[in-house]
Design goal:
The complex is a heterodimer. By secondary structure, chain A is α/β, with parallel strands linked by helices. Chain A has 9 helices and 10 strands. Chain A has a single domain, classed as P-loop containing nucleotide triphosphate hydrolases (Rossmann fold, 3-Layer(aba) Sandwich), CATH 3.40.50.300. A 6-stranded mixed β-sheet of chain A has the order 6-7-8-3-9-10, sandwiched between helices. A 4-stranded antiparallel β-sheet of chain A has the order 2-1-4-5, with helices on one face. Chain B is built from 12 helices and 2 strands; from the N terminus they run H-H-H-H-H-E-E-H-H-H-H-H-H-H. Chain B has a two-stranded antiparallel ribbon. In chain B, a hairpin with a 5-residue loop joins strand 1 and strand 2. The chains are: A alpha/beta, B mainly alpha. At the A-B interface, helix 2 and helix 3 of A face helix 7 and helix 8 of B.
Chain lengths: ~240, ~290
């Protein structure tokens, strides 16, 4: 059965029609990536699924239950948790306290503060430090840990790679399978296409709020992805040369 | 010896100011909200205690024990129904709403209780004192107020740093949008902060009502001292508020020692000096 189902979703951002008729399904244990250029509507989509931004039309269902109008803070207990773009750690809280906030309305599952610290062993030493003193990659790890502690059925990650060094991005993506193997499905949006393609079972490419390409990364050619990402018009058969 | 006495009296007065200011400091620290009806709420609590003492056979301690949680519940209700709406509309509307509340309270009290001055009779607490020697005496009420102020501020600080709800309150204060993503209902958590503020200001109103006389119009004057204590100590910092209350109390006591007519003026001058030379206050809130 489908875990998370998004159907014909329309989201407006002020005057901007940011997401148009978007549909997507995430199965249990799956990793789904939504890729797209800056301004394609990815973050708005994620915020709509997490409940921070109410959609204008369409439906969001989790485990078959309609949650389209549920406020963000009540979706956490239902099993949705978003790692927001730019980490957004609580700056007056320590690393440990940031992780603990995830437990506030947590579901049952394998994750707790201890399990997160096993995943990121350096956190133990820095548990009492202020979260603002961490590097970008460490902050991203705390943000992911905070969301994991809530034991979501679907973990939403908005721009995992944003502002991080390539080596750190690689480490982050290497961790995803360890999260998925414990039963959490992952839905991520990403500008870094190669990382997303390598990590995901299913990719949606978003252009101006619409899905223009979808499929398994194995079945997609890089030319197709490039076209969809940049919105190059189909010129019959595909692009030539480089 | 005379100076020691002034020091002790100033500290005890400072305790009262800090107790008044604690609620103001909590509301500003957690949700950047200034409640202009804060002083009037203290007066309401004092009248409520008078009514309960007169109308029931309850002893004083029971009346106080009933009044404080009652005020906390009222605070929660007022927040959910009034303050949370005005916070959504911005800081100016919150100022207007609480200013309006202040006027309604003052006039309501005037209708109900007339402009006569009243005091809360706490028996031996009102008049008794430890006479350490000829010059130095510590009144029971002043000492109790100082102890309560320290206990309230330490208690709230502990609540914010140790409990689950307290930590979420700080998280919401940092970033309400992100806090909602881990399940925090900011309206509920803000309302709890308001409930704590109402409970503490009720306590301050009762202690102040026993210390000196009150009438329906003294709320704004109480607010000014509380506000000065908060600003001197550093906005949003609870220990700062305690320090700010002490500085204000000591200043007034020493000024009164020199010339009683300088009492209030000296307090205001210290407040202005802090604003001019150390606007972040004595103990600024930790921001990184």
């Amino acid at each position: 059965m489908t875990l998370l189902e998004v159907e014909n979703l329309d989201v407006h951002h002020g005057q901007l029609h940011a997401v148009r008729g978007f549909s997507l399904a995430v199965d249990p244990g799956a990793t789904v990536a939504v890729i797209g250029a800056n301004g394609a509507g990815k973050s708005t989509l994620m915020r709509a699924i997490a409940g921070s931004h109410l959609p204008t039309a369409g439906a969001i269902r989790l485990d078959g239950k309609d949650i389209t109008r549920l406020p963000a803070h009540r979706r956490v207990a239902q099993g949705i948790c978003l790692v927001p773009e730019g980490r957004r750690l609580f700056k007056s809280l320590s690393v440990q306290e940031n992780l603990e906030t995830g437990a506030y309305r947590a579901g049952t599952g394998p994750w707790n503060v201890n399990a997160v610290m096993e995943l990121f062993p350096w956190m133990r030493e820095r548990a009492r430090q202020n979260s603002a003193s961490l590097s970008g990659g460490q902050q991203q790890a705390v943000a992911i840990g905070r969301a994991l502690v809530a034991n979501p059925k679907v973990l939403l990650i908005d721009e995992l790679s944003l502002g991080l060094a390539p080596a750190v991005v690689k480490q982050m993506y290497a961790l995803l399978p360890r999260i998925v193997e414990r039963g959490t499905a992952v839905l991520l949006v990403e500008q870094d296409v190669s990382q997303a393609l390598a990590a995901a079972d299913l990719v949606h490419c978003l252009l101006e709020g619409r899905t223009v390409l979808t499929g398994s990364p194995h079945d997609l050619t890089s030319a197709q992805v490039e076209q969809a990402y940049f919105g190059l018009a189909h010129a019959g058969g595909g692009p030539e040369g480089n | 010896m005379d100076l020691l006495n002034t020091l002790v009296q100033g500290l005890m007065l400072g305790g009262l100011y800090a107790l008044f200011a604690a609620g103001l400091s909590i509301m500003f620290g957690v949700m950047r909200m200034v409640n202009l009806a804060h002083g009037d709420l203290a007066v309401v609590a004092a009248y409520l205690v008078l009514v309960l003492l007169g109308g029931t056979m309850f002893p004083l301690w029971l009346v106080v024990v009933v009044t404080l949680p009652l005020f906390a519940v009222i605070g929660y209700g007022i927040h959910r129904s009034l303050f949370s709406r005005s916070l959504k509309a911005g800081p100016l509307s919150t100022l207007l709403v609480t200013f309006g509340l202040s006027i309604i309270i003052q006039n309501g009290l005037l209708e109900g209780f007339s402009a006569d001055t009243r005091t809360i009779d706490m028996g031996v607490l009102n008049t008794g004192a430890f006479h350490l020697n000829n010059q130095l005496s510590i009144s029971y009420l002043g000492l109790l107020t100082l102890v309560l102020a320290v206990a309230v501020i330490a208690g709230v600080q502990l609540f914010l740093s140790r409990t689950r709800t307290g930590k979420m309150m700080r998280a919401v204060s940092d970033d309400a949008d992100t806090a909602s993503l881990v399940g925090a209902n900011s309206k509920h958590l803000y309302a709890i902060a308001t409930a704590i503020a109402f409970g503490t200001v009720a306590l301050a109103g009762i202690m102040s009502g026993a210390r000196s006389s009150f009438d329906p119009s003294i709320g704004p004057a109480q607010l000014i001292f509380a506000f000065e204590a908060v600003v001197i100590g550093g906005l949003g910092s609870l220990w700062g508020t305690l320090a700010g209350g002490a500085v204000l109390g000591l200043t007034q006591a020493f000024a009164a020692h020199l010339d009683p007519s300088l009492t209030i003026l000296a307090g205001h001058l210290v407040f202005l000096a802090v604003l001019a030379f150390r606007p972040q206050g004595l103990i600024p809130q930790r921001t990184v």
